[in-house]
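Notebook entry, structure prediction.
Reason for the run: the old model in the group folder had no record of what sequence produced it. Starting over properly, with the input documented here first.
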Amino acid sequence: MPNMTEHQLEPMVQVSDLRRSFGSGPNAVHALRGVSFMAARGELTALKGRSGSGKTTLLNLVGGLDSATSGNIVIDGTDLAALDENGRLALRRDRIGFVFQSFGLLPVLTAAENVGVPMRLRRLPAAEREERVHTLLALVGLAGHADQLPSELSGGQQQRVAIARALANDPALIIADEPTGQLDSETGLAVMDLLRAVVHSQGVTAVVATHDPTLMSQADRVLELHDGRIVEPALSD
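New structure, fully documented this time:
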């Protein structure tokens, strides 16, 4: 595990007593039951837990894709509860990068065009956009695959494109939900190793949901969710 600098130990994500329920009354489902944690700048935090433990719900809340029933989330000094929908949209566009299990690439666009989509949404000038796309594809080891469609890439290569796309707008935070779930163990480890390297070299914070113990070994810190609560120490420790 790398040594964190004083700057990196500053909190990027602060979650306090977070609760999320679906429905009401006796049939309500309590997905999160008072979750609190902090993720530092330049830190990769892994979330583990069985299906239904609340991992995806937690990621959706931290990423501003859903609203909490109660509790508080602060991202890079911004209180999500203080933002309206336009504010949340701007936060997701400008400060958060997402990586999904299903890659989420647009099949009719090349690797370079997929990476460039978030920059187009920010109306970045074409020359600047093209230069950054080239830099990001080189960063993830795909400089020679810029003109290939997703269907012409392996699963590991597609996920590398997705990581490059997540970095397009220089985010402060990357949220990844089972990013290696569709990959074999060797490719998944390589992708997770890449994500860790990107986090540490770029000073980005990442919160990653995974159930693979091998991938958890790549994280700076592992939190376990069990029935909507963080278990400390982890049940398997």
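Summary: DSSP finds seven helices and ten strands in the chain.
The old model has been moved to the deprecated folder.
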